[in-house]
Amino acid sequence: MSKLMSAPAAGRRGGTDWGKVFAFPNPVNEYSARITAALVVLLSLAALLTGSGWGLAAIAAGFWLRVLFGPRISPFGVLSVKVLTPLLGRKRLVPGPPKRFAQGIGAALSTAAVIFFAAGLATAAWSLLAVLIAAASLEAFAGFCLGCAVFGLLQRRGFIPEDVCEACNNISLRRP
Predict the structure, then answer these.
(1) What is the pLDDT of residues 53-95, one digit of tens each?
(2) Where are the beta strands (DSSP E) in the chain?
(3) Nearest to 29 by CA among 74, 82, 75
């Protein structure tokens, strides 16, 4: 037998379950997502107003932590899920895959902003950050997830298989 065939068995016998390491919650409490988005808006505005490259890096790191590991180890995710959302006492469950997709878009945009900033293209970096602020503001203050709408569109067009999120087929049309 090859070593590749024994790897999955080793994972079941006490090895690392990589599926759990990189798990993203499904469903997601929409209020937690909105609070996280509000925190992203606050940090993004602070970075924009101060011209901080470190702020851009922190924003990108937060998005990567959330897209890879869900809210478990992201400071904003933990604060939203474990502290602030319970204070609200509200819950509205929505599908997780579109939220992860939206985090991925945020990770890509914020990483590009960091790269532009490091390359001396500050105007491009701050422009991308302004797009992030707009998208996060829509989520935080209006309850409209732009990334989720794009996910729904891509799924309806067949670019994302239906089995990725069967509950998502018309997510962009759902309103509270």
Answers:
(1) 999 999 999 999 999 988 889 999 888 989 999 998 889 999 9
(2) 28-29, 93-94
(3) 82
Query: Which residue is it, tokens 């997601």?
Result: 28
Written as six digits, the tokens of 97 are 């895959």
Instruction: Give the residue among 105, 131, 133 at the shortest CA–CA distance from 39.
Output: 133
CA distances from 96 to 29, 37, 45 (A): 9, 15, 27
DSSP E strands in 12-124: the ranges are 28-29, 93-94
Assess contact for 36 and 76: CB atoms under 8 A. yes
Distance CA 93, CA 114 (A): 33
Q: Hey, which residues does 28 pair with through a beta bridge?
A: 94
Q: Which two tokens mark 77?
A: 């995710």
The CA R_g of the chain, rounded to the nearest whole Å, is 18
Nearest to 41 by CA among 14, 16, 76: 76
For residue 52, the Cα-to-chain-centroid distance in whole angstroms is 22
- Biggest CA-to-CA distance, the chain: 59
pLDDT along the chain (176 residues), means of 10: 43 65 82 95 96 95 93 90 90 91 96 97 97 97 94 90 74 47
